[in-house]
Specification:
Length: 237
C-alpha cells in the first residue's frame, strides 16, 4: 500500500510503547480514528477483515471521505505502525501493533463466539482494557509447551491455569517491528519456565514478571497499554 518508511520514536525504555500510543492519539485526525474504530469493530464482530481495496470502498461509500482520502489515511496509519499491510498491499495483517489478522498461538475468545489473535502472549492481557469486553485467553508456554488459560472480566483475572502464570514484557526500542516485540513478550506456565527463557535470551531488554508480580504489576501495565489503545478505537465522533 505505502512505500514510505515506518515511523520511529525515541527509545525511552519501558515507557516507549505507551508514549508512542499516547502521541498517536494526540496527532491523528477524525478520519484516522473513524477508520481504526471501524476496523476494530469489524474484527470483534466477525474475527477477520476484507481486503484493503474492499475496506477502502466500504469506508468511502459510508461517507467518511473519498476513496483517495480514505486510502491516504490508511497509508498514514500504516506509516504510524497502527495498521500492518502485506507487501502486496492487498491484505491487512495487523491492527494497533497488537492484533494479528492471521491465527497465532495467542488467542482471545469473546463471549460472542469470535476469536481474536495477538502477536504475543502478554498482549492478550491488554485486550480487556482495549476492547471493554470479558475474554477467555489462551496461549502456550514457549518453554514447557503447556497450555496457559485465563478468564478476564471486570478488570481482573477471574481464573488462571496453571495457577502460577508468569510473563516477560519486552521493551520496544522505537524502531523494531511491533509484532516482533510482542512475539518476545510471552506468558509462561510457571516461574521456572520464565527463568529458563530469560537465560536463553540474555540480550533482550524487558521486565520479567514472576507469578507474584504478573497479576499485580503485569496487569496494571497491560491495563494502561490497553486503555491507550482504546483511545484510538473507542472513537465516538
Amino acid at each position: 500500500m505505502s512505500n514510505q518508511a515506518l515511523i520511529e520514536v525515541p527509545d525511552d525504555g519501558d515507557r516507549t510503547l505507551a508514549e508512542f500510543y499516547d502521541r498517536a492519539s494526540a496527532e491523528l485526525h477524525d478520519l484516522h480514528f473513524e477508520i481504526l474504530t471501524w476496523l476494530s469493530r469489524a474484527v470483534t464482530d466477525r474475527g477477520w477483515l476484507e481486503s484493503v481495496e474492499r475496506v477502502t470502498e466500504r469506508l468511502a461509500d459510508s461517507g467518511l471521505g473519498t476513496a483517495a482520502e480514505v486510502g491516504a489515511a490508511i497509508a498514514e496509519l500504516q506509516h504510524r505502525r497502527l495498521l500492518s499491510i502485506d507487501q502486496s498491499g492487498a491484505k491487512f495483517t495487523g491492527l494497533l501493533g497488537a492484533i494479528s489478522l492471521a491465527p497465532t498461538k495467542h488467542r482471545a475468545h469473546l463471549d460472542n463466539g469470535i476469536d481474536i489473535h495477538t502477536f504475543g502472549g502478554m498482549d492478550l492481557l491488554t485486550l480487556h482494557a482495549m476492547l471493554h469486553k470479558p475474554l477467555d485467553l489462551h496461549t502456550v508456554c514457549p518453554v514447557s509447551g503447556r497450555a496457559v488459560t485465563m478468564r478476564v472480566a471486570d478488570s481482573r483475572v477471574v481464573t488462571a491455569s496453571p495457577a502460577g502464570v508468569a510473563g516477560f514484557w519486552s521493551f520496544w526500542d522505537g524502531s523494531r517491528p511491533l509484532a516482533e516485540v510482542a512475539a518476545h513478550s510471552p506468558l509462561f506456565a510457571d516461574d521456572e519456565a520464565l527463568a529458563a527463557w530469560e537465560k536463553a535470551h540474555p540480550s533482550l531488554k524487558g521486565l520479567a514478571l514472576p507469578a507474584d508480580l504478573l497479576l499485580w504489576v503485569g496487569l496494571e501495565a497491560a491495563a494502561e497499554l490497553g486503555a491507550l489503545r482504546f483511545k484510538l478505537i473507542g472513537y465516538s465522533g
